[in-house]
What we know:
The structure is a homodimer. Chain A is of the alpha+beta class. Chain A has seven helices and six strands; from the N terminus they run βαβββββαααααα.
Amino acid sequence: MPRVQPSRGIMITIHHLHDSRSERIIWLMEELGLPYQLDFYHRVPVGGGRLAPETMAKIHPFGTAPMISDGPVVIAESGAIVDYVIHKYGNGKLSVGPQAPNYGEYLFWLHFAEGTLMSQILREFLLDRIGADAQSFPAQRLRQRNKMYFDYVEARLAAAPYFAGAEFTAADIMMVFPFTTLQKFKAIDLAPYPKLRAYLLRIAERPAYKKAMKLADGDATSKEAS
Amino acid sequence: MPRVQPSRGIMITIHHLHDSRSERIIWLMEELGLPYQLDFYHRVPVGGGRLAPETMAKIHPFGTAPMISDGPVVIAESGAIVDYVIHKYGNGKLSVGPQAPNYGEYLFWLHFAEGTLMSQILREFLLDRIGADAQSFPAQRLRQRNKMYFDYVEARLAAAPYFAGAEFTAADIMMVFPFTTLQKFKAIDLAPYPKLRAYLLRIAERPAYKKAMKLADGDATSKEAS
């Protein structure tokens, strides 16, 4: 099967922060076989955490990952970057079309990854970090909601091999990070979720994922895909 | 100009929770001129807050708004529902295409509304609710980040009349709620943001917005668009 080959004119730069959501964009480019430049930033210790270096704010006021440059255009926000690359440079590959029966599933997981899941997990991290009373109503409710979201993920992966259905899509690229690299910040016990664990092992076998995670974890300062 | 008229076969039900993100979906349907049924749910007092009633969990395990039914398919997540309706039933109206110069802007704001902005504001609400030390590093950093996001919104609306650029799009439908109805839960001072305030006044004049907010705030149990 021929690979989607863009014109050599395009040059997307991924401003990659180590251990961050921008690994999704490296992975996406590798799955699509698109060329890109990888600029690597290391986290710096600030206030008990590890934050993006101040140099990233020179690229975009948000100053954190993910960000890409496409010529003069700088775009932030994981979901936006994924949609942008797929529909502008990837001929829609890895997406699901509006007439497909699983269009709703695809869109749901694509947006849920950041719109709900990451937001909820980071809220739990925040309560931990400030040493909030774990028995307070908001803390208990947050834990209950998050368990419900994890159960929903597990149920989905019991029903289908990938989030959107039978095929690997960009919804998977959005959904994996919270269960893998984010775990370095605060591990969540995945033992109660065997379908999720089996799914993550399948994902880990994908050549594009392997290559992308090696690059995302490395210290190369610049790289162009073959 | 002819309105997009779907076949009468379609019947989307919006499961609308009062004072919630689902007002976006009513607004979207009114802007597109698409028929829908509106099922209205009132919030109930729980643990010092006002939550969705338990009956909503019978429709979808998340048990909260927004949710739509499209025949047997139930979809949650604001951004997913907006994409679904626009591309499945709206002929792409209110979206921006991949070849348009403002495609990146459109996608950014569409995803940023929930992926970052709502998530960040709700984190600040959470710290308030649990009575966290406002001088702690995480609380201070959160306030700084949120000011930066509001400044970024203000700068955008100084540069363009709508979030995606010259035209009103679905990015606006995603971006308005945090500055309007969400303010009922905890008011954020919008005085430092004159461009944002002027924008909200322009939005408030849109016939579809007026009609949608009246319906979203009312107590009708069922409604079909003309």
